[in-house]
Specification:
The protein is of the alpha/beta class. Helix content is 38%, strand content 23%.
Length: 276
């Protein structure tokens, strides 16, 4: 009898321990933008230092993929470099989701060229003519007599959406345009190709390429904050419904409001909303 009671006690302890683990173990899955990706990675690192009981998984394949994952219930956070489209909201509501946006910082879509390129300013018409294939040589714009290699982000990218709408008025891109899957891939392609032009988020500007003014405005933190740079945009985290107060999910989505979060955003080259 005593042996049975001891075994029952052990069983209860094990069940309690398992149930405790189920309740306390938390996973936050994040999918979406490669532009927001570096910020998300840094937020995850900071959060794990203060709360090791939360497990994070991060996939960076594009804003559209993030929205789809949130709608399908495959993630808790959709990282997006654009706002959700109307059709995405409708799909979310039909699926029983309630998308809630957290606007975490500002960014700018920046045109970059190979450092050997003498061109330092482009108008909206010139960019449109480049990407629709009307301008084929940099000589037509006062540069060297070398072919233009126009490179774009893939169409699932939020960066592409902003570029396509604000820079080229949703014009159909030329058949010779190349497509890349991420900001780092874009940077590598442009930095190693003399005739190349591409575009990245401001957090991806670094030595190895030259930044081009757009409509006579250079993308900087000041011009983005002031709204004078034409391709300025906010970056977002979307959740399904408003996170529970005090939860790890709420803490993560509001981390951008903290002094540490602001420092992370600035360190990654993006533009925070507030100053401490």
């Amino acid at each position: 009898m005593l042996k049975k009671l001891m075994l029952a006690g052990v069983f209860c302890v094990l069940v309690t321990a398992v149930n405790f683990c189920i309740v306390t173990a938390q996973e936050i899955r994040i999918e979406g933008s490669t532009t927001v990706g570096p910020i998300v990675d840094a937020f995850v690192e900071a959060m794990q230092q203060s709360d090791s009981g939360v497990r994070f998984t991060v996939k960076k394949t594009g804003s559209g993929d993030g929205a789809a994952a949130l709608i399908d219930g495959r993630c808790e956070i959709a990282a997006m470099s654009r706002f959700m489209k109307d059709e995405e909201f409708k799909k979310a509501i039909n699926a029983g989701r309630k998308p809630v946006p957290f606007t975490i910082c500002m960014d700018g879509v920046c045109f970059i060229v190979h450092p050997s390129n003498r061109i330092r300013n482009l108008t909206k018409k010139q960019v449109t003519d480049i990407y629709t294939g009307k301008i084929k040589s940099w000589k037509e714009l006062g540069g060297a007599d070398i072919p233009v290699v126009a490179i774009s982000r893939d169409t699932s990218s939020g960066t592409y959406e902003v570029f396509h709408e604000l820079a080229v008025n949703k014009s159909k891109l030329g058949s010779s345009v190349e497509y890349t899957n991420s900001n780092p891939q874009m940077f590598t392609r442009v930095s190693t190709t003399k005739g190349a032009i591409g575009y990245v988020g401001i957090g991806f500007l670094q030595d190895g390429v030259s930044t081009v003014k757009f409509e006579n405005v250079l993308p900087t933190a000041d011009s983005i904050v002031a709204g004078t740079y034409p391709l300025s945009r906010p970056l977002y985290l979307f959740t399904d419904g408003y996170p529970k107060m005090g939860s790890p999910l709420m803490k993560f989505c509001n981390f951008f409001l903290t002094e540490e979060g602001q420092d992370v955003i600035k360190a990654k080259g993006f533009v925070p909303f507030t100053k401490y």
